[in-house]
Fold this sequence. Notes:
Elements: H1 16-28, E1 37-38, H2 40-47, H3 51-64, E2 67-70, E3 74-77, H4 82-106, H5 109-123, H6 133-154, H7 158-168, H8 171-176, H9 182-200, H10 204-229
Helix pairs in contact: 1-3, 2-3, 4-6, 4-7, 4-9, 4-10, 5-6, 5-9, 9-10
Amino acid sequence: MGIVSVSSPGKGVNNSSDAYAEIRARILNGAFRPRERLIEERLARELGMSRTPIRQALTRLEAEGLVTLIPNRGAIVCSYSVQDVLEIYDLRALLEGHAARRAAREITGGELDRLRQLVDEMEGFALDAFPSHEDAVRWFAGRNNEFHHTIHLASRNQRLVKLLSRTIQIPLVYRSFFGYTPREFALSNYYHRKIMQALEQKDGDQAEVLMRVHIYQGRDFVLSMLQETGP
């Protein structure tokens, strides 16, 4: 999922690239909510810069699909419909399934060692072991992201890695973890271990099938969450 930490407002943020990274991080971790209006003047004041780099950053974020620029209203954080979710997760299942198939052939011993470590850590995860629910979700999301990204890199296809980065790094994926109960975390971990075992056995068919099922399991939860809370 590409989760990044948020730096303190105004610290080291002095150009459009910094502004882009900072605003993007806040969208991804839920600090900026869906349909929230992002006001250039306010962001410039918080980040200690002029409005020009803020405007440039928002244009980049629109190209990435994280905000919508509306004439006379500025930028609005994107929200997601049921159709959006269906399309996003179909694409994820296709691309990540293919990455897992390739990784079964290309993955190194070091990458497998890291996957084993991540799976063990996520299986030991407990919500009540953290100071807050947000801290727990951030910890799990970080490991989950690294697990998937390690498999993407192991595909040895840089174009595929770039496509996946743009497909997965959206606030919808991160926010879904906030609704997870221990049952959903356990189910996610079950698939992580099964996928890892298929990669250990260099079974590309099984790795692809398991990855697709895992992605669709996440999709079904997001759809149920949208039905309860709206986009």
